[in-house]
Specification:
The protein has a domain of 106 residues. Helix content is 34%, strand content 29%. The strands form 3 sheets. A 5-stranded antiparallel beta sheet has the order 2-1-5-6-11, covered by helices on one side. It is flat and about 75 Å long. InterPro entries: bL21-like (IPR028909), bL21-like_sf (IPR036164). Belongs to the bacterial ribosomal protein bL21 family. GO terms for molecular function: structural constituent of ribosome. It comes from Choiromyces venosus 120613-1.
Length: 226
């Protein structure tokens, strides 16, 4: 055991042997400086990379001219909407969404409409003009109202065909633990219309000379389908 301890102490203290070598050769570079030099060489590229990343990470703001051009292209002018209106007029077939007493109907010329109420003031054969329209378009173009389209831009007429009524319906109502039975009768009346014509009018010359400002307020959007 004593021999092992003496051997371990001699192994754990190697600097006693190298002290004379370090004193005799002071001009040579010491061994403990080599790891420091290697560490400095390894860290210098990392510092350069971090500096380049910091420089490139700064955002580049676009010039103000590009923003103004994109905003101007997004909003169409009144003259463009009037040109699209003339293109819509040249379409062969058109449709319209009309509102009659809160009920919406999408129709084309020749369609038949059954209204769930009776028009008391209308007679058979009368021609009615429908002025409240929310959508007017064709296969390639669509015009939307704000909330309704200006009635000067179109003419939609319908013919009153007849005022009909459904068959009489009877319904029996009875409550629990009672011997009485109540009979309720109902017979709803309807009005039948046929869409006679759908015409898109020309823009008045006075309005066109003024830039279409009065009609543009009644057009919520007019765009071409793609």
């Amino acid at each position: 055991m004593l021999l092992l301890r003496t051997v371990q102490r001699s192994v754990l203290r190697p600097q006693v042997i190298n002290t004379s070598f370090l004193k005799t050769a002071p001009s040579t570079t010491p061994l403990f400086t080599l790891p420091i030099l290697s560490r400095a060489i390894a860290t210098t590229p990392h510092l350069r990379i971090s500096s380049t990343l910091a420089e490139t990470s700064t955002p580049i703001s676009p010039p103000p001219e590009t923003l103004s051009t994109t905003q101007s292209n997004a909003t169409p002018t009144v003259h463009e909407s009037l040109a699209l209106l003339t293109a819509l007029k040249a379409q062969p077939s058109k449709y319209i969404t009309v509102k009659i007493q809160g009920f919406s109907f999408l129709v084309t010329p020749g369609d038949k409409i059954e209204l769930p109420f009776l028009l008391k003031d209308a007679k058979v054969g009368d021609t009615l003009r429908l002025t409240h329209a929310t959508t007017l378009g064709s296969r390639d173009y669509t015009m939307k109202g704000n909330p309704y389209i200006d009635e000067r831009l179109f003419e939609c007429r319908a013919t009153f065909l007849e005022g009909t009524a459904e068959p009489l319906r009877e319904k029996k109502k009875k409550k629990r633990r009672t011997r009485k039975t109540k009979t309720v009768k109902s017979k709803h009346r309807y009005s039948v219309l046929r869409i006679k014509e759908l015409i898109i009018n020309d823009v008045p010359p006075a309005v066109e000379a003024a830039g279409g400002s009065t009609i543009a307020s009644g057009i919520g959007g007019l765009k071409a389908r793609r």
